[in-house]
């Protein structure tokens, strides 16, 4: 498998899930991705924890660092996300944190096929904590498809076309984190031997 790599399993998602259940309004406070014109996220609700302070187009026009992100209100309301984010940073020897967000796909919903922009996908590595998922949720990237279980942590190659279909009867909720990794070369390594973040092995 070249486009996915599982970094962990059996992780405790209950504290974060409980915070989300107590604050259902968070899913409706920012509809930027859901309402994006002709975007792939019309079936998705999002809680932003960290995101660019302006749109990509605005950042490009202003010649500012389009990778810079700031903490959003969601970060304040969901403290259970913090140990997950910083534990991952330590595990992969991350140098910079990019976007951090929670995505929910309702039963019967999907994220439509798309590939992330090359500038973004080549700079960041993308990781998914599976906060809640049940059999019937399929995640395709390129020619590979996986079913991710609750409590798992995955890297995937978001530069390729990917999509998610929720054929289950439950919400699919993922915590998505972009990290700049200079020491663990996931994109190059997964084409041959996956990196080993648990051992701290650097792959040239």
- For the termini, the CA-CA separation is 19 Å
Q: Give unreliable regions as ranges.
A: 197-204
Q: Return the domain count.
A: 1
Order of helices and strands: EHEHEHHEEHEEEEEEH
User: What is the C-level CATH assignment?
Assistant: Mainly Beta
Question: Can you summarize the main beta sheet?
Answer: 7 strands, antiparallel
Strand order of the largest sheet: 1-9-6-11-4-2-3
Rg, please? 16 Å
Question: What structural class do you assign from the helix and strand content?
Answer: alpha+beta
CATH topology: Jelly Rolls
Q: Mean of the pLDDT scores? A: 86
Q: Just name the CATH architecture.
A: Sandwich
Separate helix tally: 6
Secondary structure tally: strands: 11
Helical fraction equals: 10-25%
Overall geometry comes to globular
Fraction in beta strands: 25-35%
CATH homologous superfamily classification: B-lactam Antibiotic, Isopenicillin N Synthase, Chain
């Amino acid at each position: 498998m070249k486009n996915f790599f599982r970094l962990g399993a059996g992780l405790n998602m209950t504290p974060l899930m409980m915070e989300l259940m107590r604050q259902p309004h968070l899913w409706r406070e920012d509809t930027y991705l859901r309402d994006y014109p002709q975007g792939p996220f019309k079936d998705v609700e999002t809680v932003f924890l960290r995101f660019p302070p302006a749109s990509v187009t605005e950042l490009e026009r202003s010649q500012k660092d389009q990778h810079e992100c700031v903490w959003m209100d969601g970060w304040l309301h969901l403290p259970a996300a913090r140990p997950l984010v910083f534990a991952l940073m330590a595990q992969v020897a991350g140098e910079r944190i990019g976007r951090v967000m929670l995505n929910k796909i309702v039963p019967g919903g999907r994220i439509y096929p798309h590939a992330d922009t090359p500038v973004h996908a080549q700079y960041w590595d993308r990781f998914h904590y599976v906060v809640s998922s049940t059999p019937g949720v399929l995640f395709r990237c390129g020619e590979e498809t996986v079913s991710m279980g609750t409590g798992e942590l995955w890297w995937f190659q978001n530069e390729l076309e990917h999509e998610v279909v929720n054929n289950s009867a439950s919400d699919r909720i993922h915590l998505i984190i972009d990290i700049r990794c200079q020491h663990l070369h996931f994109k190059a390594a997964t084409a041959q031997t996956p990196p080993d973040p648990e051992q701290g092995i650097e792959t040239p």
